[in-house]
């Protein structure tokens, strides 16, 4: 399954340059949700998101999407210059892939994903990166779960 996993505030804000990790909030429970969902899986993120994290995430294979091929990457990290080709290869093999950002990667991957796993962080924050409007891509709300400090919304593309 090709899933997109993202946390956002009520205005679909997902990022800021004001913090070192580019996340406008600190929500321990959402970090735990992200970890438990993606552990022992493959995650794909843009180069800027990878650099903002600052290290490979443990027990995950990370694919960094870049316009130029990146070399000398750490163990369990590879590079792709072809988002659609990478997604299609995972789909053909029946393997799970989690798209993890940033905004431009989300926008390009929306028509290619099966599900959206959206963590709605309560409140309004300041930042400069927003999740794109996904209403035109045929996603329908499948379930909503109150996780205490955030709400998990799962959308499936019909």
Annotation keywords:
8-stranded mixed β-sheet; single chain; alpha/beta; 158 residues; two-stranded antiparallel ribbon; 10 strands
Explain what you see.
It contains four helices and ten strands. The chain has helices at residues 28-38, 47-53, 83-93, 103-109; strands at residues 2-8, 13-15, 42-46, 61-65, 77-80, 97-99, 115-120, 129-130, 139-146, 151-157. Strands 5-4-3-6-1-7-10-9 form an eight-stranded mixed beta sheet, with helices on both faces. A two-stranded antiparallel ribbon has the order 2-8. The two termini are 14 Å apart.
Write the layout of secondary structure elements.
Layout: E1 2-8, E2 13-15, H1 28-38, E3 42-46, H2 47-53, E4 61-65, E5 77-80, H3 83-93, E6 97-99, H4 103-109, E7 115-120, E8 129-130, E9 139-146, E10 151-157
Parallel strand pairs: 1-6, 1-7, 3-4, 3-6, 4-5
Antiparallel strand pairs: 2-8, 7-10, 9-10
Summarize it.
With 158 residues, the chain is α/β, with parallel strands linked by helices. The protein is 23% helix and 32% strand. Strands 5-4-3-6-1-7-10-9 form an eight-stranded mixed sheet, sandwiched between helices. Strands 2-8 form a two-stranded antiparallel ribbon.
